[in-house]
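Summary: Need help interpreting a holo structure output

Steps to reproduce:
1. Submit the protein chain below together with the SMILES for pyridoxal-5'-phosphate.
2. Request a joint structure prediction with the ligand placed.
3. Inspect the structure token block that comes back.

Expected: a single structure record containing both the chain and the bound molecule.
Actual: see attached output.

Input attached:
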Amino acid sequence: MSYSNKVKEFYTSQLSDIQNAGIFKEERFIHSSQAADIEVEFPSGANLRKVINMCSNNYLGLSSHPDVLEAAHEGLEKRGYGMSSVRFICGTQDIHRELENKVTEFLGTEDTILFPSCMDANAGIFEAILTSEDIMISDRLVHASLIDGMRLCSAQHDTFKHSSMEHLEEKLLLHSDKRIKLVITDGVFSMDGDLAKLDEIVKLCEKYEALILVDDSHSSGFIGRTGRGTHEYFNVVGKIDIITTTFGKALGGASGGCVSGRKEIVQMCRQKARPYLFSNTISPVIVAGVLKVFDILSSSTERRDKLEKNAAWWRKGLTEAGFILKEGNSPIVPVMLFNAKLSQDFSRDLYDEGIYAIGFFFPVVPNGQARIRTQISAGHEIHHLEKALDAFIKIGEKYGILGLTKEEIIAKYGA
Ligand SMILES: *Cc1c(COP(=O)(O)O)cnc(C)c1O
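--- attached output ---
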């Protein structure tokens, strides 16, 4: 036995450090399918409760849509449960290619390659297309999976201040001697709900001959007039060289991701991206479900329109009630509380009122910027939002923060 007491103690003490820092993550068990109304159990107690879900990425309410379920059943019947192989050996079905073509058409790109997840897409893309002669220049707030992908790549790395175009331009100038320059950003930043300035980034990339990669995981399916994503919102469809995204959020919520973009870049991924070469892709069940999701989205914009309306209603209600929100144009609506403990107390009180929304604090968000992050869905009806708003107002009154400025809340509770 090499798992000695010494090793065991090493881990035990690390775990208690995490606990003492107040950042120990606990799972809550949902006893129903993913939807606006869910039943939740906290592991620390047997308090199974019906609550309204205000914190899922199920933006379009498709995770349990009957048509998606039916398509998934049919996929299971016709193509089986699993592939038992990676793509290039015997793990590719006709429907995998069909889905790649459908994504290409939906995003307005040249080609697409599926990955087991967007985390894997981001882990594979950089190493597949860049070497030490190249430079990756990323926004400072990009998603962890992009950071990990860049760490796996021998290209040089630099960053620019969040959404600062002046700073990005400085960095593009500084690295003008590199062979390939790749600018990397999220489309919608998940903690704040703000959009990358893609129109301006595209202009800079054209001026300095740089490529651009956008991770649109928090926008594919609903941002832009027909839900294509941030490139549609900013009218730069066809100008984004690489889009990575997930099927695990708005697009059905199961799992899977992709790299979509320039044909040669996608081909390079098929030859060299390690999560593609050495891990199974999405199972036929999920492929069939995601295909149906794209059918639904291509036939009507009803869901993204409803989502937009819901999000606008929610923002207006909270603002009029006197809460401080992060500005944004997405269904991610962070309610700012600034103090970590207040965010936890607020979240617990919401739960007691039947509203499920999680408080985030350092290190998930910067110090002194604790918040409740709410996420709106097309699966919400107005009665859900009204009940949630009533609960927010009741608890806001309890803590006496309605109508206060940031400085006043911090004076009262600390940051
Ligand atoms: C959620 C998310 C991912 C990971 O997606 P998975 O398919 O679940 O691995 C990657 N990038 C961003 C920006 C995300 O928000």
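--- end attachment ---

Reviewer comment: The pocket of pyridoxal-5'-phosphate is lined by residues 117-119, 122, 143, 145, 186, 190, 215, 217-218, 246, 248, 257 (CB under 6 Å). The chain has two domains: 29-58+302-413, 66-299.
Status: needs-info
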